């Protein structure tokens, strides 16, 4: 049976950099964001469930999900965010287990999940890696990447668990406030230990 590694971090801390690098090394990746997009596609049971909770206002004219519109609703209301997670989570879990089955013979598989702790996926994995960057770097990256104001970026960061809490629960912390090569050297070291 494959060893399942949970890879997480804060929004814009560099988790995707680590995930992409591990994939380049031949490690299978289950990307929770891609899984979420898949189960929320037009015509899926996941999207129908979301419409039942939030109404047709979350749909674009073509019937697909208005992610930006839904984001504005849930990131400004803790209750709506909980309702979103509660509604879509069963569909995400089913798809994760389906994908995991295809990798059962691999030595390692990575579950790349930004909300690994928040959404209760940590107990599914054998080991947790947290990708950390200092708060100023994280804020600047998020504003630049998502074209957000400082207020919008801070709101999104505050909707996740504090980075210190995640680091306290991690088996391994990858520090990503410096250069890419410094970050990837840490990943190489971790991978060498895992593959012994």
TrEMBL record:
GO terms for biological process: coenzyme A biosynthetic process. The keyword Nuclease does not apply. Its EC number is 2.7.1.24. Pathway: Cofactor biosynthesis; coenzyme A biosynthesis; CoA from (R)-pantothenate: step 5/5. InterPro entries: Depp_CoAkinase, P-loop_NTPase. Catalyzes the phosphorylation of the 3'-hydroxyl group of dephosphocoenzyme A to form coenzyme A. PANTHER family: BIFUNCTIONAL COENZYME A SYNTHASE-RELATED, DEPHOSPHO-COA KINASE-RELATED. Belongs to the CoaE family. This is Dephospho-CoA kinase.
């Amino acid at each position: 049976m494959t060893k399942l590694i949970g890879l997480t971090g804060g929004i814009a801390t560099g988790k995707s950099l680590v995930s992409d690098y591990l994939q380049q090394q031949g490690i299978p990746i289950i990307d929770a964001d891609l899984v979420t997009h898949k189960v929320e596609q037009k015509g899926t049971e996941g999207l129908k469930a979301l419409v039942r909770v939030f109404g047709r206002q979350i749909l674009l004219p073509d019937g697909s999900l208005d992610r930006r519109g839904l984001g504005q609703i849930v990131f400004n209301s803790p209750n709506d965010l909980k309702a979103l997670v509660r509604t879509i989570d069963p569909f995400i879990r089913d798809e994760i287990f389906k994908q995991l089955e295809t990798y059962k013979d691999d030595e390692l598989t990575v579950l790349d999940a930004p909300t690994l702790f928040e959404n209760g996926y940590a107990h599914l994995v054998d080991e947790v890696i947290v990708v950390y960057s200092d708060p100023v770097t994280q804020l600047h990256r998020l504003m630049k990447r998502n074209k957000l104001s400082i207020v919008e970026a801070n709101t999104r960061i505050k909707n996740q668990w504090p980075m210190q809490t995640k680091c306290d629960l991690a088996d391994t912390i990858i520090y990503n406030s410096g250069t890419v090569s410094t970050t990837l050297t840490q990943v190489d070291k971790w991978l060498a230990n895992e593959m012994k």
